[in-house]
Amino acid sequence: MKQNLSNRVALVTGASRGLGAAIAESLAVAGAAVAINCFGSAEKAEALAHSLREFGARATAFKADVRDEAQVRQMVADVEALYGPIDILVLNATGPQPMLKLEELTWRACLDQLEFFVKSPVLLVQATLAQMKRRRHGRIIQIGSEVFDRGVPEFSNYVSAKGAQLGLSRSWARELAPFQITVNTVSPGWIPTERHANDSQQAKDAYAAEVPMRRMGIPEDVGAAVAFLASDAANFVTGQNIAVNGGNTLG
Question: What CATH code is assigned to 9-244?
Answer without folding.
Answer: 3.40.50.720
